[in-house]
Hints:
Elements: E1 3-7, H1 13-22, E2 28-34, H2 40-45, E3 49-52, H3 62-65, E4 70-73, H4 81-94, E5 99-103, H5 115-128, E6 134-137, H6 150-156, E7 158-161, H7 173-185, E8 193-195, H8 205-216, E9 221-224, H9 227-236, H10 241-255, H11 265-270, H12 277-283
Parallel strand pairs: 1-2, 1-4, 2-3, 4-5, 5-6, 6-8, 7-9
Helix pairs in contact: 1-7, 4-5, 8-12, 9-10
The protein binds NADP nicotinamide-adenine-dinucleotide phosphate.
Amino acid sequence: MTTTVLVTGATGTVSTALLGALKGKPGLHLRALIRDPAKAHALQNDGFEVVTGDLEEPDTLADAFDGVDVLWLLTPASALEPSMGSNAVQAARHARVKHIVRNSAIKAGHGVPTRNGRLHALVEESVKASGIPWTILRPHYYMQNLLSSAQSVASDGVLYMNMGDAPVGMIDGRDVGVFAAHVIEHPNRHAGKVYDPTGPESMTMAKAADDLTSVLGRPVRYVALPQEAAQQAMLGFGLSRWFVGNVVDYGRAYADGWGDFVTSDFKALTGHEARSFKQFAADFASAFGGAVPSTARA
Ligand SMILES: NC(=O)c1ccc[n+]([C@@H]2O[C@H](COP(=O)([O-])OP(=O)(O)OC[C@H]3O[C@@H](n4cnc5c(N)ncnc54)[C@H](OP(=O)(O)O)[C@@H]3O)[C@@H](O)[C@H]2O)c1
């Protein structure tokens, strides 16, 4: 019997890795949800069924959800996340989806200091109240966030982040996709579970700059941006007030040590260590102004 998996966020960091990890697994039919038909071609070339739908618009979702057994529910970081999440859950209910795997966020909860974490708590509630068996992933800070400073690393050897000096157990977003793939292969084993995947090491941004130095073969230093300066810079780039405020929420929390932890969840589920920051830096060296890697893992 074939299990149809609907992958939302199919063009993004985590879901791209998830599709890559599930590709070719026996018994799975992979259906990618996109909102922009212009992005269908690459996914179709990779052999995935592609459907269009907008999570902000519930009326666009019925066909995409029809016949789905497992829903991978990833929504973009946005003030509309609870709306998109509940639209997806409602569509899943109507389509009699059998399992929802939700991509939430670190320490999601109603009383947490990040607006994103509080919105994720609302989506988690929608998922849990759906009557559909569920699994929730609350991944730690993605290493890919450091790509926001890749240009200044490349041009000036400076990693600017608003993260203060406390260590953070960040994870490569691709490993969140790998983790999710393990859950989706055997959803029943993970019903009712909440996982907190992290990277292998809780490390400071100064250590990240050291790793970039060693990978790129030239000096990179970390400059801890004050929150106000980070806020002004991001607003100047035209980013939305919600998004900027969210980055500042996380920056403050992490600077206070809120993210200084790792868990064993990744290794326990997959049987191997999550990628180190050094591996991430090597794989993305070209973005940071270095040579293109010869052995980047997908
Ligand atoms: N960054 C972190 O450190 C971190 C850590 C833990 C958890 N998270 C959570 O992870 C999630 C983001 O994951 P990610 O970084 O892999 O995402 P991402 O790369 O930003 O991709 C977002 C995806 O959502 C799609 N999308 C946007 N609006 C949509 C809509 N209205 N309807 C349907 N699809 C839509 C985008 O499609 P288009 O190609 O059309 O734009 C894209 O495929 C967020 O929930 C965030 O809170 C983030």
